[in-house]
Amino acid sequence: MALIVQKYGGTSVGSVERIEAVADKIAGFRDKGDDIVVVVSAMSGETNRLVALAKEIMDQPTPREMDVLLSTGEQVTIALLCMALEKRGYGAHSFTGGQVRILTDDAHTKARIKEIDSSRIHAQLEQQNVVVVAGFQGVDEVGNITTLGRGGSDTTAVALAAALDADECQIYTDVKGVYTTDPRVVADARLLSTITFEEMLELASLGAKVLQIRSVEFAGKYRVPLRVLSSFEDDPGTLITLEEDSEMEDPSIAGIAFERDEAKLTVTGVPDVPGIAYKVIGPVGEAGIEVDVIVQNVGADGSNDITFTVKRNDSEKARKILQDVCTSLQAREVILDTKICKVSLVGVGMRSHAGIAAKMFKALADESINIQIITTSEIKISVVIEEKYLELAVRALHSAFNLGDPESSHSSK
Ligand code: ASP
Ligand code: MG
To answer: What is the pTM of this model?
Structure first.
């Protein structure tokens, strides 16, 4: 017997039929004797629909009213799911965020959870009821409804699992789990049976959008065993673990992430004096533009080139800012390249396995793919390349590191 927190996302509860199917699934766990706390999202498309309604009235509705509006989506699903469970003869009890008391700060539309009072949940579990909690919402100190940012139900589930000291937090979604890379790009991308929190964070922030990043950070911090799995299939999915699995034969690489919508800016001929990187990057950051990969290099002639990447959407704005910087610093010119992408290899085993970078560069060289920028961290190597080679690069790396081979590293046993 275990205490399990299960989260069902928008597609899993996207229609009455699907809500009934989720109720069947939960019933199966109850029959085994597990205690179940369920967190649900709004029915798929509902939060977007509510956002659109608000936008019809005004471009920037006040955040407080936005939260009152958006929190209604989840309130619908908790009630419907409880009805479906009751129809099957299972006791069920719904709670909004405020009723549990999921206390957050007052940063409307992007609130952070401060504290959870689990007493009402425990009382319901003791009465053998399934507890169904609305994801994505809480209340601030004075009782205003708050929401946690898009995709926030994942974070509700992990936070509840931490507060309840649950045996596992299961995130049911419309994919089978976490893959070595995007299966739409590499047909034999493999479902990982385990991945570490660190790797998951790198993959999530690099563009593999399976879980809200904040929920993964939260799970790592509070040591919540987290599993991502499909609500439509009977498959154990991917377990996100604290430590790497020592039974893995070749634990070096977990997967390959990529980011398409990037652009690269270079300021050339910048004088080589202290403070220059700050003068170039500072104004871009102050304009609220997120700067990603940064390289600075002093050439043999003593002139300095500073290159960095930004989201493609922000690139024109960044170019204009740099043009002014360029003039004031008497640098040579600003070059914008909007046809680039970033591909990253992620794996905790890189720490202890030499030669991974060389192997990566060779695989790209064999395909005649030119590398424009290289950056590394402890468990990640990223390259910036021409966008048209993205798919080719991901496939080449996937096969060079044998990620598709069912016999290798992270596969199910
Ligand atoms: N319903 C919210 C959203 O669509 C929260 C969630 O689904 O996690 O962002
Ligand atoms: Mg979601």
So the answer is: 0.84
Residue 164 resides in a domain? yes
- The CB-side HSE value for 244 (13 A sphere, CA atoms) comes to 19
Please report the pLDDT score of residue 252 as a whole number: 77
The finding on whether 14 has its CB within 6 A of some atom of ligand 1 is no
In a domain, 409, yes or no: no
Question: Is residue 214 a part of any domain in this protein?
Answer: no
CATH at residue 261:
3.30.2130.10
Strand boundaries in 299-387, DSSP class E: 304-311, 333-346, 371-377, 380-386
Structurally, how many domains does the chain consist of?
Answer: 2
Banded model confidence at residue 210, pLDDT cuts 50, 70, 90: confident
Q: Which domain does 381 fall in, by range? A: 256-400
The Cα-based distances of 340 to 19, 343, 380, 396 in angstroms read 42, 10, 19, 18
Q: Which ligand is nearest to the CA of 40?
A: 1
Give, as residue ranges, everything with CB less than 5 Å from ion ligand 2.
Answer: 9, 151
Q: Residue 151: CB within 6 Å of ligand 1?
A: yes
Same domain, 58 and 162: yes
